[in-house]
Structures are given as C-alpha cells and as structure tokens.
Amino acid sequence: MFYTFKNFPVRIDGREIYATNASLGVEASLSENFTTESRHSERYVPTNGVVGSARITYYITGADPIKPRIYDETGTISGYFGGLYFNSGYLKSYSFNVAPHGIARISSDIVFFEQLKGSQVNQSLPPNTGYDYIKYSDCSISPISSYSTEGLESIIEASFSFSSDIEPYYTAQSGDASDIGVSPSFVRYGKKEITCEVISDNLSGNLPFTGKRMGIEFSIKKPNTATLDTFSCSGTMTSRSINSSVGNLIVSSIQIKQSMVDPGPAITGITLNASAPGSFVLISGYNLQNPTRVMFGDRYAHNYYVTNPNLISGIVPHDAITGYLTVETYGGKSTSTTPYNLSFPAMSINAISPTTGTSGTAVMISGNNFYRISHVYFGINALGSFNNINSGIIMAYPPITAQSGYIKVVATGRNAYVNSTIPFFPSPIITGFHPVTGMPWETITISGINFSGTVAVKFNGINSPSFGLVAGTNGQRMTAVVPTGYVRGYIQITGMSGVSTYSTSNFFAALAITGISNTVGIPGDEILLSGVNFQSGVMYQESLEFYRVKLNNVTTGFRWVSSGVLSGRLPPGFISGPIGIMERDGAAVYPNTIYYTLGNAPIAVAFVSPNRGYMTSNYSSFVDGENLNGVTGIYLSGLDTANLGRTYFIPSGNIKSDLLGKRLNIVNYTGIVQPTGTYASPYTPTGRFSVRLVSSGYSLAVQTRSSGRLEIVSGSLI
Amino acid sequence: MAFFKYNEVDVLIDGSGVAAESATISAENGLSPVIILGRKGNQGQFPDSPFIGDINLSYLLQTTFDAPYNFVNSLRTSHQTTTYAPHTVVVGGITGEGYLSNFSFQATPNNPVYARASYRVFNQFSGFLERKRGNINYLPFGASGIAHGYSLFITSTGNYSTVPTYQFDYSFDAEWEPVYVIGSVFPRQVQFMGAKESFRLVRDNYTGLLYSGSYATGYFNFGNQSNISGIGLGQLGTPTYNAILVFDISGAQVKNHSVEVQSEDFIRITTEATNYY
Fold first, then answer.
1. Strand, helix or coil at A305?
2. Dist. CA B165–CA B220, nearest whole Å
3. Alpha-carbon gap, residue A374 to A354, rounded angstroms
4. Of A123, A176, A422, A564, which has the maximum CB count within 10 A?
C-alpha cells in the first residue's frame, strides 16, 4: 500500500522536524568475489560496513535542534522517519540558502552506521498552525566587525554550508551479534569546514594571494524579538567574482571558508585575585578552547593559558582599564555581561629633563605607572604632544603656549593625573617688536612665544621699568616700557629659569628736538635746543660736555645742559638750512623740521691788498675780514695816475668770497679807466684809496694809509 | 461604510488628472501554504515571494499632456542606467508608487483614442478611500484636447501629413527589476532593465517582409512620403501640430507583415514594427 507524505512524520533526537523532504537510504559495501578461471561470481563479500544516510529539508520555527551538532561531537543523533529509525547518526552536512523572501529552510545530511530499524507506521498528525516559521525577511545578515567588511554591505543572497568528514572504524567482530560488522567500534571526525557565499553589489577584484580575513553572521529572528540563533562563518575569503548578463543586475560573489569550526564561546564568570592591572585572572565559561584573542576592554591580553574548554587563566594587561572582557574563538565572540573592575596604582613623576626649552624640545618625564596617558600639559590648557615610551618614561614636547610651572600628566581612562614636583620653564623666543624706535617711557609690544614667567626685559642691557603679558595671547605677546639711557641695541627677555633670549634686530632709541631759542642768527649767536632724550648714549660726544650738532653745512659742539637742553653758538660759515643732533655712531642726525636762517652779520675788514698806490686797470685785490660773504658790492675810490679822484663800483660778479666769509677777492674788474697822458712815476707811497664794502644792511668803508694801516671811514673794523 | 460613484473618485498620475474610463488596483502578497511531512493539511500560510501590486488605467488620451507618453519619450532620449523614480498614482485616495509597465492604445478613424496604462507597484499601497477633492481639471482643453483617430498623421523631417490607415496600434512594455536585500520586505531599489515598443499599422498597402528586416522609417511610405520619422496623433478636426503626440519610429524594424481578407470587408494589410530599449 502506498502512503502519502502525511504519514511520514520526522523526528530528530525525539523532536519533531518540520520537513518538506526526507530521504533515507542504506548502502552496503559489497564487492564481487572472483576466483581464478572464473569469469562469473555468485558471491558478494562485504568490504566495509553498512552506511546509511538521512537527508532532510525542513523549516525552522526558532533555534534549530540539529544546528548544535555542528560543534557538539559528543553522542549520536537519533532519527525517526514514519516508523523507521536509527540511533547512530552523525551530522555530515548542513546548509541553507538565504534569500530576501521565503521561509527559512535547512538541508541536512546525517550518516548512520547501522541498519534502519522499525517499520512504516500509518500515522498522521493533525495540522498545527501554532508555529511561527522563521522568515528570511525578519532575519539579518551582517559582517563581523573584527574582520574586513568589504563587499558585505548590501547582500541580496547568501548561502551557508557545513560539512564534516565522518570516518567509522571497525574492529574484528564489532557490532552486535545479530548484525556482525554493521556497527563501527568507534567513529572519528575528520576535517570540518564551513563555507559561505555572499552575493552583493560590491564590485571589486581585491583579493590578496594570502586571502583576506572575513566573516559574516546570520541572525535568526522573529518580528520584534531578540535573536534566536546565529550562524557565523569567520575565516578567509578564498575567491570572488563579478557577474553580469543581459537582463540581470551586476552582482559580486564572495566565498568565505572557515576551516576551524568551533562552537561559539560563552563567558560565565571572571575572577580577579586582585583588582589591579597585572593581576592573575580566571575566565570561566563554555567553548573557550582555541581562542584567537582575549581582550580586557580595548587591550589585548598576551599572557593567557587555556586550561580547558571551560577555563582560561591569564594576566590582566598592565594598561587595561575597567571594562568588559571579550573572548573570541573561531566559533564566535563572547563578551562578559558585567564589567570587571580595576584599581590602579598611582602615577608618580620623579624627574623632568630638561627643565627648560622651547616648543619642540623633547622633555623626558621619568616616573612610574605611566599607563593610558592621554594628556601632558605644560601649563593651563597648554597641551603638549607626547610619546609614552614605557611605563616609566614619557617624551613630551611643549607647545608654543607653554607656561612656566609644573607639568601635568593625565590618564583619562584611569581618571588619574599627577603633577611634576619640578617646574618647567619654557624658553622665550622673540620674533619681533613694534615700534622699532621709541622714546623713553613709551611702550612697545614684543611678539614671540613662552613669555610667561618673564622676570626681566632689557633694552641694550638697560632694564625696562615696566613690562607685562598681553592678556589672551597665551604668553605670545608682551609690552615693555622703554627705559632712559642708551637703549639702542637688542631687546633681551629673561625667564624664570634664567634663560634669556634676544631680539634678532636692534631697538633704536629716539630723541627729538622740540624747540629752539631762535631760528635766525649770525655766527656767534647763542642757540638753545630743547627736546627729549638728550642722553650721552644717544648723541655723538665731541668732548666731555659737548655733543655734535650739525647745522646744515657745518657742525659744532653744543654743551649738554640737561636731558632736554643743549646750548651752543652758531658757527661761522653756516648757510641757512636744517639743524639736527648727530646720533652716537655718527651715522645719522635726528631729523627735525627746524630750519635755521643765517642772519645779516656786520662786515669787518682786517686787511686790504694792495693797500697803497694807484688804482690800475685790471684791478684786483683782496680784502680780509669777517662776514664778508654777504658783501654785494665794493666802491673803490682813489686817485688815478693823473691824480684825479675816481670812484668805481665793483659789482658782485667780480667779487668772490670764500666759504667762511673771511676773504673777498676782487677779480677781473676792468672798469678802471686809465687817464691819458703821462703817468706819474710809480706810485707814491703817499697815495691812498678807499674801499667801501656794501652788504645787506651793512656798509663798511676803509681807507688805506700809507703806513698800510686801515682807517675806517664808516662801518666797523674787527 | 462609504459608497462612491464613479464620478466621485479622483484618478491622478503625479498629481495630474486622468480622464479615466476605468481604473483598477490589485495587490498580491506571496503567501504560500506550509505543508510538512507527517501532518495533515497546511500548517499556515507564510510569504514566500515579494509583494506585488498593479494599477491599471483605461482613459481618454489627450494630446496636450499624457504622463505615460512623457515617460516613454524621456526614456527614448535619455536611457538612465541608474534608478528611475516611481510615479504616484492615485485612485479614489488609494495611492501607489508605481513603475510604468505597459502603455498602449488603438487609434481607429472616427473614434477618440482610449489608452491603457499599467503600473507595477513594489511597495504597499497607502491612503484610504475618499471622495474627489474637486480641484482637478481632467480635460483642461476640453474636447478639443482629446486625441482622435481621424487625426492620425505621419511626420517626416518636420513635415506632417495625414495618412490613409485603418488602424494604428501602439504598445510599450517595460521590465523593472526590484532589488531586495536580506532582511528587507520591500525593494531597496528598482532597476529599469529594458522595454519593447510596438507599432502596428493596418493599411491597404502591401510591401513585403525581408528576412534581414527593414527599418520602419523607410518601410512605411505613403505616396510620396518616405523616410518617415514618426507616427502621431492629433485632435479631432484640423490638427494643430503644436498639440500632438508623436511616436518616434526611428530604430524600429518591421517584424510582422500580414494580409487579411474577409468577406464583405476590405483587404487589410497589417504591418508591425518593434523597437527595444
């Protein structure tokens, strides 16, 4: 009689399986037995035991009862198929395909090494609509984050496949008496592997020849429930391909193979014998064999030992902080449900070296328990960079905003910090100042770095009477008052440690002429210059009390009266123009806008040459005296050779004065008319003539005497 | 429970009124029974395939604006390789985001043209039954905007001529591929995979059919009109060629040519050309 599928309930290990397909089979390993001279054989002899297989395709409503057999190799599987049963089953393969729609359906293959027992039973169970079958649309598939996630984002299809080699071993007379040789003495598991194929939209041909570590996890869920079960494949990507065909999407296929199949680990407890890093720890749980990593928070444990699948012993990493413990195996990952708590030994700083320096200087901080260092401060909010060399040494680099004071080392993860007992003094650096010249008591601004802790500012070695940091500039700007004295030179800043720095350019002290007693005068007139910063170090010193003043074309010494007054006289030879005080090195004259005008000085005559005789044609002579450079004309009166009185005017074009106005030369004057007739004999010593010099506002007439003396006719003599 | 009459229902495509003669919305989920070994009957019905919806419209074709025609034209000029946006189709307040899967009509002399448009919907419908809102103008140009078989014409390099045909059938069929990712119920994206366009003219002119095919532009000659670029529809009366629907036949090849004679009828020669996108 034929029965239908309704009469074929399936149970595995006593639990109903919601199978859509099931097939059972047994196969004997028989071989013909030929003897010599016989081409036929009537005998078949067994060459191995009977192998049975049960293949089932089934739906799942929650956690799959067969799936644990992937990892659990203890015991055998019992199967019941419509009355036929076996008890020596071993899971040989297990697979399913994941698609966006549809009900989750598993295919498994169980081998058994015995005859099927029982017989078909006419039985049928009523419908059971109380099960909520797992739908793929409620499940999720995601990459395992600790591996490469490339190409595992938009997955439209996936497959999961497990296979295991099952090898029966027979010994003589193994099995029961009624069926000798059917049952193996023992069964060994051979190679196990899990392979996954993932179809997604990632188009890449990136595959290193060593493969790439990848892993995916498929989670079984129902709507609005937690994960019921997971299937993971974490191993190596062994191949990938890209496929495109007309009428279809471009898809990428990735194959992942996991050759070490373990059940997922579970942590059930953590025992610390002390609460500090470096302590001994016991991790208890399940399936802890073959861990790939053990982590205390974000720190790997490098010292651990697997005592057995339920216990791992190890040392808490020295730089661990309180957190959750994670054990990862090939079967998956387990994280403790409660955190472990640690207490930490205090940090200490024994020394810093050097104790001064600029930004970028490597400062070695020596101490203890330098773990999880997160910040090193050189002052308030002055965060430096650092390298935590080991638990006893930190190499830190001050920022440009570093301030004088203690260095603070912080370990945020441990909620701890420590200050150095020795202060650090950042070395200041001057990058510029403004203005570059200044008067005493004026304020200039100095720019640079590390000005906090400045104890002195000097201008060419002279202390500034006042200085200070500019707020809000992180010690990169300060002001200083220009002192009195010769302050031309480098600006020096000295820090608390005694380290000082100099500006790269000079500061120029300035003086100023603010007033003059008179702006018009003649040589010899007294002049008073008033101004600011008439300092000996600023002005060019001619002698003990006299400083050089340049009056346009001439220089002379003015006597120092006070820091605001110089006194002197207008030197002869001065031509109207600006006046100024010569700077100390003689290279410059402090500019001013004072213009001194030479006044009209009285003419004085000391000597006339010739001073006797007759006027002759082409008359030339010279006159010595003072202030002659203002002479604009000369009247020459006297007797000609005919003893007739004549007066000639010699214009300025025939008058040449030296620069100092001390000599006039009368040249090329041809205006003298010689009388006709007979000349007298060479001039008589008694002849005389008069010379009258005319200048603006002055007129001097002198008359020569036979004795050679000059006689003033009008005007004045020196 | 509300009963609406046909004249109380809005039919819209992308917010524009459609002078529909009929409109249907259908939806189907992929429920399949679970039947297992050892138990009688089915153990429940569960979705085994994606949700599919369809909206079918039959409406008066207007020459001034037609959403399906506009989509076909845009596809002809710009075949995107990325996704297309769906069209919002509303029937009586029920709204679906649909992709044009079919557009067709038949133009015969002395008859207005009724078009059929079908949209495939991959997401669930939204909205609820409601009366028309009364702010839609279904015939903005009145009767003079309706396409009429009397005004069938051909275009040739910018010239327009009426043609002696008994019937003009046009159809457009598009294939859309929804992409579902694991864990999602509705598609993450919908890809346009291809389309087929068919032109079918019934005339009294026999030309023959070549094994290697002939381009429709040179095949359909009407008297002295050759190298025809398009077949179009205008309104009843003198067509104004600035309010027309022109169907470009360039690229289409003649695929089918038949002759039919029936008693008490004229001899009819049917020619069909197809184009693919």
1. strand
2. 11
3. 22
4. A564
A595-598 vs A520-521, strand pairing mode: parallel
Assigned token pair, A662: 């001390």
CB atoms within 10 A of CB B219: 22
Residue B177 in tokens: 């591929």
Residue in chain A nearest B174 by alpha carbon: A247
Integer Cα distance of A590 and A222 in angstroms = 95
Output A280 or A127, whichever has higher pLDDT: A280
Identity at A153, one-letter amino acid code = E
Q: Is the pLDDT of residue A673 over 90?
A: no
Is this complex scored with an ipTM above 0.90? Answer: no
Residue type, B36: I
Give which of B54, B49, B83, B100 is closest to B190, Cα–Cα.
B83
Work out the end-to-end distance of chain A between its first and last CA atoms, rounded to an integer number of angstroms.
169
**Tokens at residue A441, please?**
């008591």
Cβ–Cβ under 8 Å, residues B121 and B27: yes
For residue A22, how many other CB atoms are within 10 A of its CB? 21
Q: How far apart are CA A106 and CA B36, in angstroms?
A: 13
- Beta-carbon count within 10 A of A217 CB: 18
pLDDT of residue A351: 94
Q: Take residue B98 and report the two structure tokens written for it.
A: 């649909």
Residue to substitute from A105, A137, A159, A217, interface B, most B β-carbons within 10 A: A137
**What b/e readout covers B242-276, taking b as 16+ CB neighbours within 10 angstroms?**
ebbbbbbbeebbbbebeeeeeeeeeeebbbbbbbe
Tokens of A686: 């008694």
Give dist(CA B130, CA A590) in Å, integer: 98
Residues of B in Cβ contact (< 8 Å) with A128: 39, 43
Q: Is A484 helix (H, G, I), strand (E, B) or coil?
A: coil
- Residue B72's SS3 state is helix
Match 């260095």 to its residue by tokens.
A407
User: Is there a contact between A422 and A441 (Cβ–Cβ < 8 Å)?
Assistant: no
pLDDT of residue A684: 38
Sign of CA dihedral A81, A85, A91, A92: negative
Structure tokens at B240: 């104004």
Which tokens go with B223?
């008297």
Cis peptide before A610 (omega within 30 of 0): yes
A509 falls in which pLDDT band (50, 70, 90)? Answer: confident
Would you call B43 and A127 a contact, using CB atoms and an 8 Å cutoff?
A: yes
Question: CA-CA distance, B277 to B192, in Å (whole number)?
Answer: 10
Q: Which residue of B has its CA nearest to A9?
A: B38
> How many CB atoms sit inside 10 A of residue A480's CB?
26
Residue (of A581, A583, A556) closest to A569 by Cα position: A556
Give the three-state DSSP class for B208: coil
Q: Cβ of B182 and A157 within 8 Å? A: yes
Considering only A187-201, A449-463, A610-624, A637-651, which range has the smallest mean pLDDT? A610-624
Q: What are phi and psi of B68, to 5 degrees?
A: -60, -40
Instruction: Report chain B's C-alpha Rg in angstroms.
Output: 22
What integer pLDDT is reported at residue A680 of this predicted model?
Answer: 43
| Percentage, residues of chain A above pLDDT 70 | 86
Q: Give the residue from chain A lying closest to B31, CA to CA.
A: A102
Distance CA A358, CA A476 (A): 12
> The tokens of B112 are what?
């207005």
Q: Do the Cβ atoms of A58 and B44 come within 8 Å?
A: no
For A163-183, letters b (16+ CB in 10 Å) and e give: bbebebebeeebbeeeeebbb
Spell out which chain B residues touch chain A, with contact meaning CB-CB distance below 8 angstroms. 30, 34-44, 46-50, 175, 177, 179-185, 188, 191, 193-194
Backbone angles phi, psi at A567, to 5 degrees: -125, 140
pLDDT exceeds cutoff 80 at A663: yes
